[in-house]
Amino acid sequence: MSHIIFDDQRIELDEGQTVLSGLLDHHYDIPNSCRSGVCQTCLMQAVDGEIPEIAQVGLKDTLKAQGYFLACSCVPQTPLRVVTTQADVLRCSATVINQTLLSKNVLRLRLKPEHTYEYRAGQYLTVWKTATIGRSYSLASVAELDDFLELHIRRIPNGIVSNWLHDTVKTGDILQIQAATGNCFYIPGSPEQKILLAGTGTGLAPLIGIARDALLQGHTGDIHLIHGATQMDDLYLHQALLDMAMQHHQFHYHTSVLQADHVTPQISTVPLEQQSIDVAVNPADWRIYLCGDVNMINGLKRKLFIAGASMNNIYSDPFVGSVDTNPTNPDTHPNIDIKVEQA
């Protein structure tokens, strides 16, 4: 067993217990959401002691150098003195400039950061409702093309943050957002390489951003985007993507609607996993981006790997559900359908 020092208190940790778990057990209100090392809402800072390498996976080098770590992934092997992060270090203000319903349950939210905000299309950011409650959403915007940040917010039943953004937040409101993170973004190089973008629900948001970014940077290889949905109404931005395919000969848009009212050349009922295999024939040299439900992503990864895809060429940011210890107030995500919805 080891221990941590927090708020001048010594807290003993059980074998294998994380810093976050130990602090929550002692009734400290530490920000957290997914508790799986994805959303980064539980970021803390160590001022003394050795940080396990796994607790800094996915963090920028500048944050690692300052001793920041993910409390939900940190199981100290030696004593560790920790402090909460200063909100102004990692968060900034952004004004709501536009709200549009793209479907019955999906809200397009556009934000204008007060300062320069660095990100790559396809990454995700956290929107904070309070100092300790936040959820992560993927970015559909492209920094070089858009003067705003665009998020697609799916309403989650009883979701603390998603319902707040849908029902309470108004144009002109100022929100707090956190620095963007995530590994799903276009990397220049090999412009002739074929690209597969596959996702479900609001997993479409990062895929649109990646596709637009690739086209902007002169990608010449075929880009295939497959959007999976349960019903026809879930195919939001359907016409916009059809128009995008008409404008760019190398961009191809596919759909997978499990409960489609009818089948057309633009509407298919073939499952997303099967379509991905059918489209990415001989996937060894394809670059592949997967966004959506974690189970879907893991299953599709396996199928593509068996078909010949290199794991080094598969990029994914699965949506992970937020954890709520109150069963009467579920707050689940999963922009899965951030990444972490999104709740």
Chart the SSEs and their pairings.
Blueprint: E1 2-6, E2 9-13, H1 19-25, E3 43-48, H2 61-65, E4 68-70, E5 80-84, H3 87-90, E6 91-101, E7 106-113, E8 124-128, E9 134-138, E10 149-154, H4 160-167, E11 174-178, E12 195-200, H5 204-216, E13 223-229, H6 238-247, E14 251-257, H7 272-279, E15 287-291, H8 294-306, E16 314-316
Parallel strand pairs: 1-5, 12-13, 12-15, 13-14, 15-16
Antiparallel strand pairs: 1-2, 3-4, 3-5, 6-7, 6-11, 7-10, 8-9, 8-11
N→C terminal distance = 35 Å
In CATH, the topology of the largest domain is named Rossmann fold
Number of strands: 16
Computed CA radius of gyration, to the nearest angstrom = 20 Å
**Helicity, as a percent range:** 10-25%
Strand percentage, roughly? 25-35%
Judged by helices, strands and strand pairing, the structural class is alpha/beta
Give the overall shape, derived from the CA principal axes: globular
Enumerate the strands of the largest sheet in spatial order, edge to edge or round the barrel.
Answer: 9-8-11-6-7-10
Order of helices and strands: EEHEHEEHEEEEEHEEHEHEHEHE
The top level CATH class name of the largest domain? Alpha Beta
Q: Name the quaternary structure.
A: single chain
CATH-defined architecture of the largest domain:
3-Layer(aba) Sandwich
- Low-confidence spans: 324-342
Count of DSSP H/I helices? 8
Biggest sheet details: 6 strands, antiparallel
CATH homologous superfamily descriptor of the largest domain: Nucleotide-binding domain of ferredoxin-NADP reductase (FNR) module
Number of domains: 3
